[in-house]
Every structure is written in C-alpha cells, then in structure tokens.
Task: structure prediction
Amino acid sequence: MRQVISETERLIIRNWSEEDIAPYAKIIGDPDVMKYIGDGQPRLYEEAVRAFEKYNGQIQEQGWARFAVELKKNNSIIGFCGYDHYNGELDFGWRLGKQHWGNGYATEAAQEVLRLGVEQFQFPRIVCISFKENLGSLNVMKKLGLKFEKEFEFLDRGTVLQYIHEL
Result:
C-alpha cells in the first residue's frame, strides 16, 4: 500500500510499491547512473527487488530508509532519496534516473528528506559521500549546506569526499 512520507512542489516522497521495481531496475541497470556507486557496475533486476524489500522493511521497522521519489506530474518513480546504514554511519544519498538529471529534482528531494532527518527523525549526525568526480552530487551537497569533513580512498576506485550535517 502506497504511503506518502512527504511532498514537495514537484515530488512525492513515499514508501515503495511493487510497481516501482521494474522502473527502478532500469535506473540501476544504467551504467551512467551507477558510474559513481559502489564498484561502478550496473545492477541486475534482482537488486531492485532486494532494494524494494529492504527499504520497505526499514520504513515499517524504523520509519525511514531510502524513500521512493515520485514525480507528481506523471506519478512515475524517478529514483530514491533517503538514509541507510553504511560503514557505521548514517548515510544520506539519492539516485535518480539519468533522464531526470539537471532538473533540480535531486536537490528538491534531498532538501525535504534532510529536513525530515533533522526534524522528524532527529538524527544528530548525517553523512553524505561522493566520488570527487561526481560533480552533480557534490553540488547537491553544497546546496544543502553540508560541511566538508574529509576525503579518503574508496574501493581502490578513487577519492571520495565526505560531507556531514550535525546538530
């Protein structure tokens, strides 16, 4: 059942529905989308199924996860924005389909989900990481007002920059 977590002017932040699996599989199957994610490899359909199950389970258990992001104008899923645990930290991130890049959707979703993290979930520390070359994500982090904390090597793939929000 579809549960709206929050809305912005153009987006709906919500839990995941089974209808999201196929379009999300297309997003994570795109080499350009996955270039700066983990090992940089596109993911298979089964990974979209696992994400659907994991994120909805987390939403039910703790109220937060990587939320589905839906475009209001056509009710289509365009990616995710939200939180997960990674390396002992609360990792904040977003992933949108390539056709939705450059429209301000990542910033719009991230601003709202960051607000939820601070106000509703009361996270004292939120971490956001990105490869140095991923200028789109780094620009979103800067627009959010996140503070640079450190840089480090990641999976022998290059330098990652870590930004934070702390209360």
The first helix runs from residue 21 to 28.
